[in-house]
Amino acid sequence: MRRAWLGACAGVVLAAVTVLIPAAGGAAADPSPTPAPSPTTAWPCNTGPTRPSDPPNDPPTAPGTPEVVSVMMIEARLRWAAATDPDGIACYYVYEALPNGQSTLRATFQPAVTEGTVYLPWPSYSVRYEDHSLYVVAVDSRGMSGARSGSVTVRVYNDVVNPNSPPPSSPPPPPPLACHVTYGSSTWNGGMSTWIEIANTGTTAISGWHLTFTFPSGGQHVTTGWSAQWTQNGAQVMASNMSWNADIAPHRSVSVGFNGSNTGTNPAPAAFYVNGTACT
Fold first, then answer.
1. b/e per residue, 85-106, with b = 16+ CB within 10 A?
2. Tens digit of each residue's pLDDT (9 = 90 or more) over 78-87
3. Are 145 and 57 within 8 A, CB to CB?
4. Among 50, 92, 156, 194, which is disulfide-ready with 109 (CB 3.0 to 4.6 Å)?
């Protein structure tokens, strides 16, 4: 067999393929084109001369809409139904329709070939994939191009991305906060002195904390406190960490306290919360 190149019609640059043409009396054409050595070299389609005495020429019929046989990296293998023309088909062109309304030639195949590989550009580095809309045009032996086939979309993935891999998953949420609060208070006529221990019973550090609780009696009030920033709104009290005790390591605790007043009773709060989580 002898090797020949089929390419763009005059003035069109071919991007892509070699094909095998049998010598006279040889075997059928190899339907598996391989990439041309230079994608910028124009190779003419094998069309015969047109003479003024030739009768009017009808263009070839449109080839069938190509189907995608396989995609491997930037190599898309397409298959299409043959076009027909009384003067004979000279070649098939595979074009890509561009977003700006123009088209670019991606491959040329000899007339007997209706399945072959088209080489597409890599997607840009910043994207996961790019889609390419491809169609086929037949050219007859007198150089007349026919109507374009329907289009097929081929998706080419970036070479640094595995298209079969699942999308990146979010990191697992941290374990829930776990805590224990110990509350004790001494009472005297109209006053109280209270100490509180906040223990981290979880497996991860508590980085920044605020403790909230509600006084059961409307007459209980914080007057001064230590080892925390203390605020009171109605019966609700909040203690927020200082800069030096903001972190509570697992199985560690911090101690805070306050002095306050009452109107005769000083019951302990029923519930305590650290960063919104109820503590035991």
1. bebebbbbbbbbbeeeeebebb
2. 999 999 888 8
3. no
4. 92
